[in-house]
Amino acid sequence: MQTTGQLDLEQVGYVAVNYIDCKPHYSERFECLFCSRAKMIDTMPGFLGMQVLRAEDQPEPYLIVSYWKDKSCFDGWVGSPEFLEGHKRGFEDIRKAKAAGEEPPMTSRFVTYSVVSR
Q1: Which residues contact 114 (CB under 8 A, 6 or more apart)?
Q2: What is the CATH architecture assignment of 9-114?
Q3: Nearest CA among 88, 15, 86 for reference residue 46
Q4: Phi, psi for 16 (deg, rounded to 5)
Q5: Which of the four pLDDT bands, split at 50, 70 and 90, describes residue 5?
Q6: Per-domain residue ranges for the chain?
Q7: CA end-to-end span of the chain
């Protein structure tokens, strides 16, 4: 698990969860991408923290949980050049697999949540 700083739950108004399924051969690479991440997200307005979670029972997906002040801050991240910079290595791995006629080494599914109660 990776987290940035101390998370103040009182500030969290929006949570994004990215479910990442990795091919078995790609799991180590995927974890290394986060261990050496560009940290572009850390500079974004309204970003409050992030966790990268690995299930104890494989092959469940990894969860990338990011915490935001509100939806507009999250939308600002997803539409930013920093988002592309922060994800370029993973996007390149997917591009290379497709160019070689292979299945992508990982797939992603986002689910976003508004905080309704604490």
Answers
A1: 13, 14, 71
A2: 2-Layer Sandwich (3.30)
A3: 15
A4: -115, 130
A5: low
A6: 9-114
A7: 23
Paired strand residues for 68: 14, 47
6 SS3 class: coil
Reduced to 3 states (helix: H, G, I; strand: E, B; else coil), residue 94 is helix
Residues linked to residue 72 through DSSP beta bridges, in sequence order: none
Cβ-proximal residues to 12 (8 Å cutoff; 6+ apart), any chain? 48, 67, 68, 69, 115
**CB atoms < 10 A from the CB of 47, how many?**
19
pTM (2 d.p.): 0.88
Torsion of CA 27, 52, 114, 108, to 10 degrees: -10
Sign of the dihedral through C-alpha 78, 30, 22, 98: positive
40-79 pLDDT, tens per residue?
999 999 999 999 999 998 789 999 999 999 999 999 999 9
